[in-house]
Design a protein that fits this description.
transmembrane; Mpv17_PMP22; mainly alpha; 225 residues; membrane
Length: 225
């Protein structure tokens, strides 16, 4: 009878949860990283919806389908892509000295020049496909790929400096997802569309001025047919 409460207490300890997560990373790294990205992208979108005035004015309610699309991308594409990409970098770039400045900065450069634009392109394309709008993929990518990639250059080089220099390889996807909560807000708003944000801050339409009705001497004379 005493063992059950003790088990419940141990499961609630952060150290035990962390050990369980690390064990899952060792046993099923791809699945664990995919689920981590699923949660990270969903959380980022929920934060975006809760803090963006444009979204509240457009939808007025929480958009569960939008969060589902973001979570699906994170779990099905983002997590696996990060898993295999980081593995490739560790094997291809100075594997004998992975923490050296040359290795770290080379990985940052490759990530930002190759994976940043490719990953962003895949993100926008997948969002349009999940909305049943394959014909708009070209226009969406043309409009948003470059601005979003440039915005990422303000965040990810510094974030990956910590990632490649200090974070253990198995935990890099988790680290990226923690940083990505804010970045996912940006991606989520970009996928939702710039027009929605512009509409939230557009000036009100002019109301036509109605002339007051005049009485007495100032009243206009009616013409008889």
């Amino acid at each position: 009878m005493v063992a059950a409460p003790a088990m419940g207490l141990s499961l609630g300890r952060p150290s035990t949860v962390w050990k369980s997560y690390c064990t899952a990373l060792e046993r099923q790294p791809l699945v664990t990283k995919s689920l981590t990205s699923l949660v990270g992208f969903a959380l980022g979108d929920m934060v975006a919806q809760a803090t963006t005035k444009a979204n509240l004015r457009k939808h007025k309610r929480f958009d569960f389908q939008r969060t589902l699309r973001m979570a699906t991308f994170g779990g099905a594409i983002g997590g696996p892509m990060g898993h295999f990409w980081f593995q490739y970098l560790d094997k291809a770039v100075l594997p004998k000295t992975p923490k050296s400045p040359a290795a770290v900065f080379s990985k940052i450069g490759l990530d930002q020049l190759i994976m940043a634009p490719i990953g962003t392109l895949i993100f926008f394309a997948s969002q349009q496909l999940m909305q049943g709008k394959p014909r708009t993929i070209g226009s969406q990518v043309k409009e948003k790929l470059w601005p979003t990639t440039v915005a990422g250059y303000k965040l990810w080089p510094l974030a990956h400096l910590v990632n490649f220099a200090l974070i253990p390889p198995a935990q890099r996807v988790l680290y990226v997802n923690i940083i990505s909560v804010g970045w996912t807000c940006i991606l989520s708003q970009a996928a939702e569309g710039i027009k929605a944000e512009q509409a939230a801050f557009s000036p009100p339409q002019q109301v036509p001025i109605v002339e007051p009705i005049k009485y007495g001497k100032d009243a206009p004379k009616l013409q008889r047919a």
